[in-house]
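Review form for a predicted model. The reviewer records the input and the model, then writes brief findings.
Reviewer: anonymous (R2)
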Amino acid sequence: MKIYQVDSFTKEVFKGNPAAVAIMDGPLSGDLMQKIAIEMNLSETAFVKINEDHCDLRWFTPATEVPLCGHATLASAFALWQGGHWPKDKAIEFKTLSGSLFTSLDSSGLITMDFPANYATTAKGFDKTELESTFGSPIQEVLIYPAELILIFESEEAVLSANPDDAVIAKQAKNGVIVSAMSEGENYDFVSRYFAPNLGIKEDPVTGFMHTILTPYWADKTGKTIFKAFQASARTGEMQTELKGNRVILKGNAVMVFETDFELPSTSH
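Model under review:
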């Protein structure tokens, strides 16, 4: 089985968010996919099965399978095109647990992903005391999206300087805690970070899925529909986002780190 490692949402190796992409030539059990994800030890490992007119796609963290992952989708499309598995001039439909996702290359070479928009709701009556203590900054708004908690801060600096306690974060949401604020610079519209110890990730470097929630939120707040977004993790990452009806368009770059052949155990199929 061919496995690629790709850095997503960056033009530079060792930045953005790394993902492993396994191109399957036959069926694998969910248990084996999970073991491979643990072995790869990245925030996400994507498993791709190529069909004639679409690809099947699943994502695993070292801890669990997840229903949607943006950076590993971008990595999967990039690996398919770069590895010669799919024509570069042909869009890719990925069939996933979150429905069909569509990827293509735009005229500037950016990878474009078409995802469903996700809408968070206000967490009414939420006690912010413990979270404001662990973040050390006042929280402007608290939102929820089924397995995520979203915290909107008044200042960009509160997002950039955040170093929350894992134990506090772990009990606040099933998956993770998203933090975001309007950018105070000219290069970006909003900044964000994602902490997900329950998924085996202290902090995710760059999170496509998170931007399917934040893009509709900031569109509602600003009246804009197109954004330049910056994820302020240690590795950093950036993307362009657009709200189009009930879809979010994410655009980003990717770079290949390495490719290798993975010898499957004889009892894997």
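Findings: The first strand starts at residue 2 and ends at 8.
Further findings: The two ends are 12 Å apart (CA to CA).
Recommendation: see findings above.
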